[in-house]
Structures are given as C-alpha cells and as structure tokens.
Design goal:
Layout (H helix, E strand, L loop, with lengths): L12 H4 L29 E3 L4 E2 L2 H4 L10 E3 H12 L5 E7 L4 H18 L5 H9 L19 E8 L29 H15 L4 E2 L6 E3 L3 H7 L9
Parallel strand pairs: 2-4
Antiparallel strand pairs: 1-3, 4-5, 5-7, 6-7
Helix pairs in contact: 4-5
Length: 238
C-alpha cells in the first residue's frame, strides 16, 4: 500500500507532510538492565482502550495470564487517540499488546531465555540476561519494572479501514534483526521505510518514545520513556 496517496491537507503535520520527506529514524541504543532513572510513581488508573483496532496476539495464542481487554494508563490512552487523529485519512492504529500481566511477562521471559540458551550455549548467565533484555523485560527486576506490566507500554502498527496491516517488513515479535526500528533506513524498499517512519513519527509527535529494538513498541511514563526524556518514571507495576 502506498500510503502517500492517502495524505490529506489539514492542520495535522502527519497528514500534510510528504512521507518521503520525513527524516530518518535515529539509530538509538538502550540496555534496559542498565537504566538508572528517578522514580516518582503516580496512582493513575488503568483504562480500557477504545477507538482503535485490535489484534490480541497473546490471547489468541493462549499464553498464560493473557488479558482479554486492552488496558493502559489513562494518559497513555489519551495519547494513543491523539496519535491516531494525526494519521492520514483511511489509516488507523492497531494494537497487538498493551497492559500485560506479570504471569504473561514471566512466560515470555522464560521463552526468550530458553531460545537464546539453545542458540548461544557459550553465553554466561549475565550475557544471556543482557541479550534477553533486548527483547523482553526481566520480570524479576524490581529496579526496572517490566514495561508492559506498568500500563505505559504499547505494541501496535498501522492498518487500513479493512484492518489490513501496512507492510512493516517484518512481523510482530519475530525476534530477528528486522525488528530493529531503523533496520530499513538503508534499504531501497521505500514502502516499508516510509511506513515505519510514519508509525515512529506519529507516535513520538504526541510524546511516546520508541524502544529501538522493536519497531512496534512505544513507551510513555515508564523507565524507557524516563531514560530518553530525562524525566522521572511515572508508572510502576500495576
């Protein structure tokens, strides 16, 4: 799908800009296990997300503890809807995962650790932990709470009115190098490059930060957001 044909002139920057003129996605790095930020936790409630499309991947796969409703902190829900309002006409956000139970988090952690143990048997436990954290938050780290368990992290993409996903060049949770948000910046695949840029800039324009190892993952109010924004972390495990 060539999303540039859907652009419409109005006051929203994302709706009137030529996607080919969006800047490159920056090459950022982060190790969640080494984040050291201030914490100023608030009691903001979780709120059900409405007004966007959904694809409940973990519930459909039968993962332990997968929640049936998509929940996020109240401010994060407002930011999601603001981001959707900035999309070109005919395009919508589609959420894969939002608030995540600690049960599901532990299952995902054990899954990725087991995968990397088989692929890299030479790694020490410390090296294995560092590698695994690039893909999944450690549910046993009390200093840096699992991102999705705070209600401040969301996994999502962009789709059309028929809920067909835009081509992002790789699937959600593929656990490969393609997941890197800026992976296609040096590619000739313009559709994928511009689609990823659209998602990145429409989300960051309303205050989210992207987790650089996952093109679909965005944070607000959690430790990754605090790290990049140089602000105190707002949300603890809910």
């Amino acid at each position: 799908m060539k999303v540039k044909k859907r652009l419409k002139e109005d006051d929203h920057i994302m709706k009137k800009v030529d996607l080919s003129n969006l800047p490159e996605i920056p090459n950022l790095g982060i190790n969640v296990g080494e984040i050291d930020v201030l914490h100023d936790y608030c009691s903001e409630p979780l709120q059900e997300v409405n007004g966007v499309f959904f694809d409940s991947r973990y519930l459909n796969l039968g993962y332990p503890g997968a929640v049936e409703k998509f929940m996020l902190r109240k401010t994060v829900v407002e930011k999601i809807l603001e981001a959707q309002s900035k999309l070109p006409e005919g395009l919508h956000l589609k959420i894969y995962d939002a608030y995540r139970s600690i049960v599901t988090q532990k299952y995902l952690w054990n899954e990725i650790v087991t995968k990397y143990k088989k692929e890299y048997p030479e790694l020490s436990n410390l090296q294995l932990d560092k590698l695994s954290r690039k893909k999944v938050s450690n549910p046993f780290d009390k200093k840096n709470p699992p991102l999705h368990c705070t209600g401040g992290a969301v996994d999502l993409t962009i789709c059309d009115e028929m809920q067909n996903d835009l081509n992002m060049g790789g699937d959600f949770d593929s656990f490969t190098d393609i997941d890197q948000t800026n992976y296609y910046e040096n590619s000739d695949n313009l559709d994928v490059k511009y689609n990823r840029r659209l998602l990145y800039y429409v989300m960051t324009s309303v205050g989210f930060v992207n987790y650089p190892s996952e093109w679909w993952h965005f944070d607000y109010g959690d430790t990754v957001w605090a790290y990049f924004k140089k602000k105190p972390c707002c949300y603890n495990i809910k």
